[in-house]
């Protein structure tokens, strides 16, 4: 006759089951960061954006623009993927973070402009912010805002995305600015700094909450986070609202063949 299991055996079996469940949950939560960590190779940050107005043709100008901008977008997206993987690992360990992990979390929260998360809703808010953007969306919006890299703000300020600043002397004064307005179009030391500022703006500003929410929904459903899907949530980027969104979507569709030559894995 088999011996009756002792309470100690029951306790050991209970702990073992808990460990199996925890490992399964960890694998599910961290499925994005089990991929090999990318080695970030910083591209040329481009200290002086070239004036592309002298390009031989429109198609040549477009390819020059995309060719210059895409490595910067790829670099920033790779950095965001690493930060997201780091954040998800912290989320798994959230009940017993080490001092070093607490410091990492504080740095991420500060960079993405949220309080250090203490409850699940705060964690989810931060996770919505720490994520990459479709390459095609960034390329096309940069093209739209900078007139394909020929605007005064692009050439003289390395600003491809029309970002404003409000301290006198922080940028270039728009020629059509009203007397009552005080904004300037920000001047950046490099084009990479402009890309980073723009992407951080979409990932943190309250005006783009719908974009972040849509991206999170698509990701949770296992669907492609496409440029067209997120462009629908950019009505607040311009005073033109939905007309601006329609223009962005048209540009994405028209320039799809050129974009796919540079980013074949992405479906705009």
From TrEMBL:
Extract the GO molecular function terms from the UniProt entry.
amidase activity
Return the InterPro entries for the record.
Answer: Bax-like (IPR053195), MGlyc_endo_b_GlcNAc-like_dom (IPR002901)
Residues in Mannosyl-glycoprotein endo-beta-N-acetylglucosamidase-like domain copies: 133-253
- The highest taxon in the source lineage is Bacteria
- One matching Pfam family, short form? Glucosaminidase
Q: What is this protein called?
A: Mannosyl-glycoprotein endo-beta-N-acetylglucosamidase-like domain-containing protein
Instruction: Please tell me the species this chain comes from.
Output: Terasakiispira papahanaumokuakeensis
């Amino acid at each position: 006759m088999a011996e009756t299991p002792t309470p100690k055996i029951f306790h050991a079996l209970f702990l073992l089951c808990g460990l199996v469940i925890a490992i399964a949950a960890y694998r599910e939560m961290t499925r994005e960061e089990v991929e090999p960590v990318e080695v970030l190779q910083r591209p040329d940050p481009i200290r002086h954006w070239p004036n592309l107005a002298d390009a031989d043709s429109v198609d040549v100008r477009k390819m020059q623009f995309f060719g210059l901008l895409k490595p910067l977008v790829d670099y920033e997206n790779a950095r965001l993927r690493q930060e997201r993987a780091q954040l998800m690992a912290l989320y798994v360990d959230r009940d017993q973070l080490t001092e070093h992990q607490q410091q990492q979390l504080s740095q991420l929260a500060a960079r993405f402009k949220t309080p250090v998360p203490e409850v699940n809703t705060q964690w989810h808010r931060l996770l919505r912010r720490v994520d990459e953007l479709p390459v095609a969306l960034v390329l096309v919006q940069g093209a739209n805002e900078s007139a394909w890299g020929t605007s005064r703000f692009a050439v003289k300020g390395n600003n491809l995305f029309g970002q404003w600043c409000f301290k006198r002397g922080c940028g270039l004064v728009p020629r059509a600015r009203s007397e009552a307005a005080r904004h300037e179009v920000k001047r950046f030391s490099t084009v990479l700094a402009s890309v980073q500022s723009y992407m951080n703006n979409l990932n943190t500003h309250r005006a783009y909450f719908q974009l972040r929410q849509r991206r999170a929904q698509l990701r949770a459903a296992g669907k492609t986070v496409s440029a067209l899907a997120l462009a629908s949530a950019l009505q607040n980027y311009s005073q033109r609202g939905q007309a601006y969104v329609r223009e962005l979507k048209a540009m994405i569709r028209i320039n799809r063949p050129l974009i796919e030559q540079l980013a074949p894995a992405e479906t705009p």
